[in-house]
Amino acid sequence: MATRGPYAKGVAKREEILSKALEVIARQGYRKTSTRELAAAVGLSEAGLLHYFGSKEKLFEAVLRARDEADTARLGDELDVIDKLGAVVRHNADVPGLVQLYSTFSTEAGDPQHGAHEYFVERYQRLRAALAASVRARQADGTMSTAADPEKIATLLIAVSDGLQIQSQYRLDAEPADVLDHLVELLGAG
């Protein structure tokens, strides 16, 4: 049974806001996108926009969550998590504004008092666990060296992925996904 009434309208408006925010931030970047501009794009005042999220921090956290959900939906279940990480890095080359949002916002959220701090704590824990499981699966099927510690490799893959995407904002001479793929190849069974 479909949800109806004011609650359904609120959910629909929130989804519209997130969709528009993903589009605008991907195109213009985090620093060049104001909440006032996002509000106008969806026919709301700035206060009306923030009403749906509670704060600017929670709005941008919701944008990053929506980006993660879109990546998951786009990639499906055919790839393992290591390959999905490479595919996301490859896709992110086409949405530099979202990379800028992620890198800036993740740095700001390093402060435990920041509204999105727990989002990043949980995201990194979840991603490390999934990548470690993928490393173990590759080790079991003989496609990754058993000398590699799954948890440490998971942590390194995230660090390399994030670091390459930050470097890409400063005219990195190589495609970040190609560099990440090279690292994964080096970790292979040999």
From TrEMBL:
GO function terms (MF aspect): DNA binding
Keywords, ordered alphabetically: DNA-binding, Repressor, Transcription, Transcription regulation
Q: Where is the HTH tetR-type domain?
A: 11-71
Instruction: Extract the Pfam families matched here.
Output: TetR_C_6, TetR_N
| Protein's name in the database | TetR/AcrR family transcriptional regulator
- Organism equals Kribbella turkmenica
Query: DNA binding happens at which residues?
Result: 34-53
Q: What is the lineage of its organism?
A: Bacteria, Bacillati, Actinomycetota, Actinomycetes, Propionibacteriales
Question: Gene3D superfamilies recorded for this chain?
Answer: Tetracycline Repressor, domain 2
Q: Which SUPFAM superfamilies match?
A: Homeodomain-like (SSF46689), Tetracyclin repressor-like, C-terminal domain (SSF48498)
Q: Entry's PANTHER family? A: HTH-TYPE TRANSCRIPTIONAL REPRESSOR NEMR, TRANSCRIPTIONAL REGULATORY PROTEIN
